[in-house]
Design a protein that fits this description.
single chain, alpha/beta, Rossmann fold, 10 helices, 8 strands
């Protein structure tokens, strides 16, 4: 897949995912709020500051920062998928935030002036862009001297069976090659050394890096299956591309694969992110 093909495929995926993320935003936030709260605490926005959120999706992490920046400050809530931007816009209006500007923005090519923001947030975005080095350079360009960059990426596959088990079972089902760990994707920045190298090459210094664990809960396997096909990004189109027969076989294979995470009240499937503060 060429870089341009990847960008188009990623755009298409997140346009499709927007409705599910918007619908299930409260569930998504409650389960992963430790990630977003760590990020905003590390950023520590001050009243009057301008905060940029990249790959904001439905916007919940940035909305915490907007509240701290106050009416005299501003949150630039951005995403490259227009339907995500629209979902975040509707929510900020619903909860009465008056200091949020929503816009479509490509993290690799930002239509923003140099030294124009005081802080940057990016939850689960840099690992998915086609060229993370370019995105970090752009972030450095638009961030004022001394400003903080706080971002989150997913950790090692073994710490994130909610995503690694479905990917592994898909390879087993199709007989295809495993994903290239160097390609953009959920585990592209799972290695802390890779993350540090990218950040430092863009001119930042890592101040803090910390693992933040949480779990995705599901009452039954149907709930987990719906999560994968409606919320889990790039896995969804790969599952949809299976024939009906292969999809049924894959579902059975996957259910066996996550059996270890099933208890009396349903499934509790672990997740772990790597959160970073840099300046």
């Amino acid at each position: 897949m060429t870089t341009q093909d990847y960008r188009q495929a990623s755009y298409d995926v997140w346009q499709k995912m927007a409705a599910g993320w918007d619908r299930d935003r409260r569930w998504m936030w409650e389960r992963s709020r430790a990630v977003g709260e760590w990020m905003v605490d590390a950023l520590d926005p001050e009243p009057g500051q301008t905060i940029l959120e990249l790959a904001a999706g439905i916007g919940d992490t940035g909305f915490l920062a907007a509240a701290r920046a106050g009416d005299e400050g501003k949150l630039l809530c951005t995403d490259f998928a227009p339907k995500m931007v629209e979902a975040s816009r509707k929510e900020s209006q619903r909860i009465g935030l008056r200091n949020v500007e929503h816009r479509e923005l490509d993290a690799e090519h930002m239509d923003l002036p140099d030294d124009s923001v005081d802080g940057v947030l990016c939850r689960w975005g840099y690992m998915l862009v086609a060229d993370p080095a370019a995105a970090f350079r752009e972030t450095r360009r638009v961030l004022r001297d001394g400003g903080a960059l706080v971002f989150s990426v997913f950790g090692a596959p073994q710490e994130n069976p909610w995503a690694s088990v479905p990917a592994q079972k898909l390879v087993e089902q199709t007989g295809g090659p495993p994903p290239d760990p160097r390609a953009p994707g959920i585990f592209a920045m799972a290695d802390p050394g890779t993350t540090s190298s990218l950040v430092e090459a863009a001119g930042f210094e890592v101040e803090r890096m910390e693992d933040v664990p949480f779990t995705w809960p599901f009452a039954d396997f149907d709930g987990y299956w719906r999560f994968l096909i409606e919320l889990a990004g790039a896995l969804a189109p790969r599952i949809a591309a299976l024939s009906e027969e292969d999809r049924s076989a894959y579902r059975l294979r996957l259910e066996e694969g996550v059996e270890a995470y099933r208890g009396e009240s349903g499934y509790e499937i672990p997740a772990l992110t790597q959160n970073t503060l840099a300046r």
